[in-house]
Design a protein that fits this description.
This protein is mainly α. It has a domain of 100 residues. Helices cover 71% and strands 0% of the residues.
Length: 161
């Protein structure tokens, strides 16, 4: 949430810092879950104010937990966690685009679309428009195979009639 607000205020550096922390937190939580952690230890109890598991600062961790409680509810639902990462990539694409870093904006747009396609969670019209936008970028860059791939992905979702 903080990254989104800062991005809207055009504070790109700080926005990306918080979005990067969100992505890093996702990877740490997933890694801990894959290692069989029954309950994730979110306690902050060392002198640097860092959580041993997540290795993020106390202020960020507190805000993450408050947001995740509202977003995830009482448990860490894997589908919601994956959806949160997809949203984070979407916001990173927006922030990079706003900062005129077209390549990074495209990279995160592509990551977002890939995750949406794999999860099946997308609005068809928005997904197709975003694919056409990326296809146009790839075509202008002479990256015809990528353009064809992304346009075919969008076309495969369209109804036949």
């Amino acid at each position: 949430m903080i990254g989104i607000v800062l991005g809207n205020r055009e504070d790109v550096g700080d926005a990306l810092k918080y979005l990067d922390q969100a992505t890093a937190t996702y990877h740490r939580v997933v890694a801990a879950c894959q290692q069989g952690a029954e309950a994730l230890d979110f306690t902050v109890n060392n002198k640097e104010g860092k959580c041993f598991l997540l290795d993020v600062d106390k202020v960020f961790l507190t805000k993450f937990l408050e947001t995740s409680q509202n977003f995830f509810g009482s448990d860490l639902d894997p589908k919601k966690i994956e959806r949160a990462l997809t949203q984070t990539y979407f916001y990173e694409a927006q922030v990079f685009s706003k900062a005129n870093n077209v390549e990074k904006g495209i990279e995160f747009s592509a990551k977002t679309l890939e995750r949406q396609l794999k999860s099946g969670e997308y609005e068809l019209k928005d997904f197709c428009v975003n694919c056409v936008t990326l296809g146009d970028y790839f075509t202008n860059q002479g990256m015809y195979a990528q353009a064809e791939y992304i346009l075919k992905a969008a076309m495969s979702l369209l109804p036949e009639d």
